[in-house]
Amino acid sequence: MEAMGAMMGGPPKKQLYPQLMELPAMTPEARSRIDADARDRINTGNAALVQAYDDYHRAMTNNDIAAMSAAVTRQRAALAELESGTAGLRALAEGEAPRQIGLTWFRDQMNLAPAGMSPEGPVGPFGLSWFHFISMTAVALFALAMAAMAARRHRRSIALVNRLTSAPAAALRPVGQPVPAPPPAPWRTAELTSPPPIAPLKSSTWSGAMHVTAIHRETPHVKTFRLVAPEGARIPFTFVPGQFLTFSATVDGKTIRRSYSIASPPTRTSYVEITVKREDDGEFSRYLHDTVSVGDALQVRGPSGAFTFDGGNADSIVLIAGGVGITPMMCVIRYLTDMTWPGEIFLVCAVRNTEEFIFREELEYLQRRWPKLHVAAAVAARSEGTAWMGLEGQLSKDAVVHAVPGIERRRIHLCGPPPMMDAIRRVLAELGVPPDQIKTEAFGPAMGLVPPPRPSPPPPPPASVTQLLQRVEADTVPPSGLPEGEAGPATATLLFARSGKAAPLPPDKTVLEVAEAIGVPIDYSCRVGTCGICKTKLLAGQVTMEVQDALTDEDKASGTILACQARSLGNVTVDA
Ligand SMILES: Cc1cc2nc3c(=O)[nH]c(=O)nc-3n(C[C@H](O)[C@H](O)[C@H](O)COP(=O)(O)OP(=O)(O)OC[C@H]3O[C@@H](n4cnc5c(N)ncnc54)[C@H](O)[C@@H]3O)c2cc1C
Ligand code: FES
Fold it and tell me: What pLDDT band is residue 277 in, cutting at 50, 70 and 90?
C-alpha cells in the first residue's frame, strides 16, 4: 500500500499497526492523529474498493482475464486499507490490548486468516484446512516409515553382533584389554627395519636410436638430455636405478662410445634423462654439449651395470657422490621418493663450487618433502655472488660421521672422481665399514692404480692353439698401433681364437689394446672395468684384472673377463 502511494507521487504512509501498539502510552494529540489517519484509510480504501469492483465488472464484460486478475489484486489491497483503518478506530474506541493489536498486525503481514478461517477454503479436521491436514498426514506417514526402517536396521545389527560374538574364543579380545595394533603397513612406519614390498625391478637390454626432446642446463658445465623412443609413449627398455646407457656416435669420422648413468627414475616411463659434464678435452661430452640439439637421434645401447639400488636390498642407503657422480644417486633418490620408500636416505656430496652443485634446487625441494632424505654437501669453494651455509672444504671424516649416524652398519654407494673415491674409501675403512657393504662406480680412469700384473704359470694350451702359437713365434710382429718403446717386452702371446689372429702380449697392455692394434673387434665403453661392454670369454690361460666391477659371480664362474682390464705374463687365448 505504502509502495503504491509512493508510486502515485504522494508521501509514503506511516505503518498504522506499529503506532497502535504504542497506544496506551500516547498523548491525546497523538491519538487524534491516529484517528484522522484511520478515517483517511477507510475513505481511500472504500473508494479504491468501489473502483476495483467496477474495473472487475468491465474486464469481465470484455472477457479480459488479465485485467480481471489485476482488479482482484486492487480489491484485496483496498480491503486491507479498509481493515487497517477500521482496526485503528476500534482500538481507539475500545482500548484494545497492545498484544491483540500486534497479533492482528502479524496476521495482516503474514496474510493469515483469522482463527477458525482458512484462506485455502473450508476448515477440515482439527481446525486445519484440508490442504494442511493432507500435507501433515503425508509427513507423519513418511516419518513412521523411516522409523520402521531404522528399527529393522538396528535389529539386523544386533543379529550380526551376536553371530560375531559366538565365534571361537581365540579370535576375541577380552573386554578391557587394549586393541592390538594392526600389522604395520611397511611403507608407513618409521620404525621399519625390513625392506618394503617393492617389486624387484628388472632390466631389459635394448639398442637403437632415441630422440632428444629437451636439453636443460643444470650448471655452467653440465647439461641434462631428455631422450624418448622415436615411436610410442614408453621407453623401449626397463632398468634398475643406478644403471647406465652406452652411447655411440661418429665424431670426426671416428666412432666413439661413452657410458652415461640414467639420472631419471624407472617410475618415469616415457623418457630417460642423462646428465653430462662437459670435459674441456672430452670428445664425446663436447659432442653432446656443443653439437647435439633437440630433435637429434642418438644411438643407445643398454641398460647395463650392477651399481644398482631399488630399495629391496637394505633398510637404509648412504649415497656418497663427487661432482657429476651424483647422477646415478639422483636416479636412486628420485625412484625411492617416488615409491615412498620408508628407509633413511643419506646423500653426502662433494662439490667443487656452489655454481657446480648439480640438482641443488631439486634436492632442497625433495628434502623439504621427505623427512627421511638427509642431504649434506661439502663445497670446496663458494662461487662469487652465491650463498652457501653448508660445509666448506673437502669432505672430511668428521663431516661423514656427522652426516651419517651409524654409517658402519649401512649400505654405501660411492661414485665420483678417482682421487675422491680413494679418499672416501680410506675414511670408510677407518670408520669400520666392511668392504662388502660398499658399492662403487668409477666414471673415469682410475689414475695411478694399475699395479704390475701377477705372473701366473700358463696351463698347457690345446693342440690347435699350440699350432697357431708356433706360427706366431716363427713370425712375431709387435702389434701395430702401440707406440714404440711403450710396449714392454712381450713375454706371452695373445691368441684370438674366433678371428684366427695372434700377437705378442706385453705385460703393460690389455687384451683390448692388443685387439685394437691388430684389428680384432671388441666392443668397449668405459675402459675402466665398470660397464661390462668388453666382456670376453677366456678360453685358455690366466689374466689379472685391476677392476672387475662389471663381472657377476656367474661371469667369473664361466671364465668371462673384461678385455679392457685383462693383462697377463703368460700365453692367453680369448674368444674374439
Ligand atoms: C658407467 C659410467 C657412467 C657414467 N656416467 C656419467 C654421467 O652420468 N655423466 C657424465 O658426465 N659422465 C659419466 N661418465 C663418464 C663418461 O662416460 C665419459 O667418460 C666422460 O663424459 C668423458 O668422456 P669424453 O669423451 O668427453 O672425454 P674423453 O675424450 O674420453 O677424455 C678427455 C679427457 O678427459 C679426461 N676424462 C675423461 N673422463 C673423465 C672423467 N670422468 N673425469 C675426469 N676426467 C676425465 C680424460 O682423462 C682425458 O684427459 C660415466 C662413465 C661410466 C663408465
Ligand atoms: S670397456 Fe667397460 S668394462 Fe671394459
Answer: very high
Going through 116-235 in order, the beta strands assigned E by DSSP cover 206-219, 222-228
The Cα 355–Cα 381 span in angstroms is: 10
User: Does any ligand 2 atom lie closer than 6 A to the CB of residue 305?
Assistant: no
Structure confidence at residue 7 (pLDDT): 35
Alpha carbon separation from 246 to 16, 88, 232, 511 (Å, rounded): 97, 104, 21, 21
**H-helix or E-strand spanning residue 321:** strand 316-322
463-574 shares the fold of 316-442: no
CB of 576 within 6 A of ligand 2: the answer is no
The yes-or-no verdict on residue 344 having pLDDT over 80 is: yes
pLDDT band at 405 (very low <50, low <70, confident <90, very high): very high
Atom of ligand 1 at shortest distance to CA of 284? 25
pTM, entire model: 0.59
Q: Of 307, 516, 527, 556, which is best to mutate to test ligand 2, by the most ligand atoms within 8 angstroms of its C-beta?
A: 527
Position 260 confidence tier, pLDDT thresholds 50, 70, 90:
very high
Interatomic CA distance for residues 322 and 330, integer angstroms: 12
Confidence tier at 491 by pLDDT (50, 70, 90): confident
CATH topology of domain 463-574: Ubiquitin-like (UB roll) (3.10.20)
pLDDT at 22: 66
Residue nearest to atom 44 of ligand 1 (CA): 444
Atom 27 of ligand 1 has which residue's CA nearest to it?
282
Give every CB contact of residue 137 below 8 A, 6+ residues apart in sequence: none
Domains of the chain, residue spans: 2-96, 206-304, 316-442, 463-574
Q: Which ligand is nearest to the CA of 244?
A: 1
Which CATH architecture does the domain made up of 206-304 adopt?
Beta Barrel (2.40)
pLDDT at position 71 over 50: yes
Q: What are phi and psi of 257, to 5 degrees?
A: -130, 140
Instruction: Say yes or no: CB of residue 509 within 6 Å of ligand 2.
Output: no
**Topology classification of domain 316-442:** Rossmann fold (3.40.50)
- Measured CA to CA in angstroms, residue 126 lies from 132, 133, 138, 141, 285 at distances of 10, 8, 16, 18, 97
> With a 6 A CB cut-off, is 276 part of the ligand 1 pocket?
yes
Give 3's pLDDT tier (boundaries 50, 70, 90): very low
